[in-house]
Amino acid sequence: MTEFQRLYTGRLWSVMAWDQLTALWQRIDPAAGWYLQAAGIAGTQSGAAPTNANAADATTVSAFIERIDALLRAEHHESYCGIVYADDLQNPRLIKIYDPNNLGSSCGSSKNPPGPGWIMSRVKPDEMTAARPAPENRKRWWRALLGDS
């Protein structure tokens, strides 16, 4: 089992409150070597394992945090967060972020629970296969973040 697989399948802690999410983002060093992945979107720093050996630069990580936070707060119509998970809430190495528009069963008891929409990892990710392609609006969102057309 790779280090990424160990983190991905290991114990994760939920960020339940919106203020906890704000605190989590503030603890992240954008220059710490974060890989960013978006499920179901092919290409570098996306759904498959990154094709280069480099983590995202600090500017991209900061932009991702700002934009994903805004997306979650706008589209997750709950008084709590509950859709962001980290291996360590104080010093995370892996963060799973679930898409508010693809949550499946609210209690998580589905036989085929949805995977995360986005993953931040300080360990180079393994290739991952999304259960389904990302919707076009998420692809556009991701490409705009990365400056791709």
Description of the structure:
The chain has 149 residues and is an alpha+beta fold. The chain has one domain (3-146). It is 31% helix and 11% strand. It has helices at residues 3-9, 18-27, 58-75, 136-146; strands at 13-14, 35-38, 84-86, 94-97, 118-121. The protein has a 5-stranded antiparallel beta sheet with strand order 1-3-4-5-2, covered by helices on one side. Strand 3 (84-86) and strand 4 form a beta hairpin. The longest helix is centred in the middle third of the chain and has 18 residues, at 58-75. It is globular. The N and C termini lie far apart (36 Å). The relative contact order is 0.24. Mean pLDDT is 83; it is low at 43-52.
Beta-strand proportion: 5-15%
Question: Helix coverage percent of residues?
Answer: 25-40%
Q: What value does the average pLDDT take?
A: 83
Tell me the domain tally. 1
Distance between the termini: 36 Å
Shape: globular
Largest beta sheet: what is the strand line-up?
1-3-4-5-2
